Amino acid sequence: MTNHHDLAAIRALTETAGPTWASIDPEYVMRMRTQNRFRTGLEIAQYTADIMRRDMAEYDADSSLYTQSLGVWHGFIGQQKLISIKKHLKSTDRRYLYLSGWMVAALRSEFGPLPDQSMHEKTAVPALIEELYTFLRQADARELDLLFSQLDRARAAGDDTAVEFIQSQIDTHQTHVVPIIADIDAGFGNPEATYLLAKKMIEAGACAIQIENQVSDEKQCGHQDGKVTVPHEDFLAKITAVRYAFLELGIDNGIIVARTDSLGAGLTQKIAYSRTPGDLGDRYNAFLDVEEVTGADLVDGDVVIRREGKLLRPRRLASNLYLFRAGTGEDRVVLDGITSLQHGADLLWIETEKPHIAQIAGMVDRIREVIPDAKLVYNNSPSFNWTLNFRQQAYDLLAERGADVSAYERSDLMSVDYDDTELARLADEQIRTFQRDGAARAGIFHHLITLPTYHTAALSTDDLAKGYFGEEGMLAYVRGVQRREIREGIATVRHQNMAGSDIGDNHKEYFAGEAALKAGGKDNTMNQFG
């Protein structure tokens, strides 16, 4: 990473400036530049778009090379996730972040907690993208600062071997900055509103924007009832708006993820406009729940469409929404997927009601008949009861194999009584391999969990509160948190360092030399943690 030509250029610059820059150390400038690799969000968007495009090509060649992410709702949570990945897995390759509109609504709105219905401030989305990358860049600065301090100590000790080793770590440092797939919901308004918000998201660093085919002002969480979709032409206009935003800002290979909620959406806001029989509008309308009528059957206020010489009256609710025919969800998903990929989308997202690989694969196979390299982003959703779903799938599999399943009650398989059974072990193994198997069989390029850190924050807080305010008292924190941090090498045990105290001390020395007043001296209690 260190550019020695830049160091030479900095030295030349300081020499040109003369004695007025005598206090500027070119190596310190080089260090600060190295710690601040990305200066703008657009640099991040381009860097991460290149990563995603590379990963997509590698997945096309080998489906075992799928990608993953966890949804995060704060910069610190995203930062700690990437620090953990680097610590345990040694590389951030094929590991992304997901920005969940659900968590923005629930945790980041000035209105307070809101449901996932696009009621939160749209500006909260680019603000969170910027925050996430601020924390990831700070993780880079912190990690490199630790290496620079080690380098100084090795030089002072005259240990040339250590100097060479540490310098190689600096030169090959892998950034914590990774792609973010960012949720723009249904676009927060008309296509112009979508374009303007997409620009803000890209300027903040987003290389991949996910947009769904619901009605903006009726948007629902993908796992709630009452979802309303829009005709294809309306959705394609928003996909085009996002592409224009990428192109205007020079991110020519930005990624658009087109999400279809049609599998669980039984309603549409309006009848599609059709120019000729068999066009997109006509095909969309063909899924409507209609009854054949004659002129004599019509009453004031009726809406009818004409198809193949027949007058058809769509079923319309008091809300002025129209019903689709039952059982058409998968056909609508397939048409959505093909249409989106043919009109500018790069990846698909199919929102399903359960994690079932055969169901997902069935739809993807049909899409791939038209678009052979179609790929999915798939929501490994916390809204699914994974234990019950996969125990029921295991039950059905065992039954198909002719095994005796009389000891199990299929509707009650969540019970702890089944935890130590062959069926439970089979189900857990299917859960363990779900991502690998889904990537191989169902075209899933990217697996994500939308809101895991919402749940982990609640669970860990419950664990601590239960003990701390109970009989355990301070032992609940020491045993459940601090002792584990120390023994498991969790960097936050030295929370002053994590918050940037040591970086600040080094900067003070850059700026003031021996006169610097540092916070990290012998009386800093963080020294208890090494």
Automatic annotation (TrEMBL):
* Keyword Magnesium listed: yes
| SUPFAM superfamilies, alphabetized | Phosphoenolpyruvate/pyruvate domain (SSF51621)
Annotated Gene Ontology MF terms?
Answer: isocitrate lyase activity; metal ion binding
> Which Gene Ontology BP terms does the record give?
carboxylic acid metabolic process
Source organism, top-level taxon:
Bacteria
Q: Which cofactor does it need?
A: Mg(2+)
How the cofactor binds, per note?
Can also use Mn(2+) ion.
Q: Catalytic residues per the record?
A: C221
Q: Does the keyword Metal-binding apply?
A: yes
**Which reaction does this chain catalyze?**
D-threo-isocitrate = glyoxylate + succinate
Alphabetized InterPro entries for the sequence:
ICL/PEPM (IPR039556), Isocitrate_lyase (IPR006254), Pyrv/PenolPyrv_kinase-like_dom (IPR015813), Pyrv_kinase-like_dom_sf (IPR040442)
Q: Where does Mg(2+) bind?
A: D183
Q: What keywords were assigned to this record? A: Lyase, Magnesium, Metal-binding
Q: Which NCBIfam families match?
A: PRK06498.1
**Could you tell me what this protein is called?**
Isocitrase
Task: Kindly list the organism's lineage.
Answer: Bacteria, Bacillati, Actinomycetota, Actinomycetes, Micrococcales
